[in-house]
Amino acid sequence: MMLSLISAEKTAGRLEGDWINRPDSLSGLAWINARSDSRTIREREVFVALSGSRTDGHDHLEEARLKGALFAVVQRPVTGSPLPQLLVRDTVLALRDMAALALAAHRSAGHRLVALTGSVGKTTTRELLRRGLMPEGGVCSSRGNENNEIGVPLTLLSWPGDYRYCVLEVGVRKPGDMDYLAPLLDSDVGIVTAIEPGHLENLGTVEAVWAEKSKLLKAVLPGGSLVLPGQVRRRFASDPLLGYPGRRIVAGSIGEGDEAPGTLVATLRVGTGMTLHVEEWDLDLPLSRPSAAPGPGVP
């Protein structure tokens, strides 16, 4: 199924924004990708002007226009550039809402999202999945440490319209981080790589780490899969989440301590899932199409 671009009218409605330098017709402003860095903006993308401690995107609208940006999302009017501007209350919140629109467009086209979090092993797992899914029709994935309230939306907003998969790494530092990202986490597969005593200065206990990170699993759509280590499943076996109806639980138990002996030797596709072969064990990550019903929104 072909992906449908997001109209400027729908964008303005979702962001509750007002147009500045509005063209006579908005039909030419339909989009699917957006960026917050004017240095890397591409033709027919949207520029989101974020204000940081060292730089302010509002100072770079003209650069974005010259590189072919369709329009800019701003939180204050910028004079001196003819680039159409959508004025919103907060461009950080707008970034999240735009990513939600992009995710919905990809889901409507039948594209798949794998979301993962954990105390350790997130980036390694992300890269294994990215490499394993590459032959299946293009894979977008998080880059570097872009797994926070800015990086997660930017990853979804960089998802090319003709790529079938996205592997999304999600991190949390404090209570509420996962709730903020909830509109972006409706996935086919949710993975928790490990639950360890990380960020206890903000989260307090390992149980609180699980409580926050496991919210990612709540967003897995009906028909999807929850993937987690066997020791995590055993430790938190009483959590009602692990009896979530309509989702398959895949819990790895790979010898004592649930650690894999050896190294990854191959990745391949089997049916509708991907299997990672590590010496004598296989971890199957099914990616079958889930129900179109919205998941209960919630690293």
Fold and architecture overview:
It is a single chain. The chain has 299 residues and is of the alpha/beta class. It folds into two domains: 88 residues, MurE/MurF, N-terminal domain (Udp-n-acetylmuramoylalanyl-d-glutamate--2,6- Diaminopimelate Ligase, Chain: A, domain 1, 3-Layer(aba) Sandwich); 149 residues, UDP-N-acetylmuramoyl-L-alanine:D-glutamate ligase. Helices cover 26% and strands 22% of the residues. It is built from ten helices and 14 strands. The strands form three sheets. It has a six-stranded parallel β-sheet with strand order 7-8-6-9-10-11, with helices on both faces. β3, α2 and β4 form a beta-alpha-beta unit. The longest helix has 18 residues. The radius of gyration is 20 Å and the shape is globular. The C terminus is likely disordered.
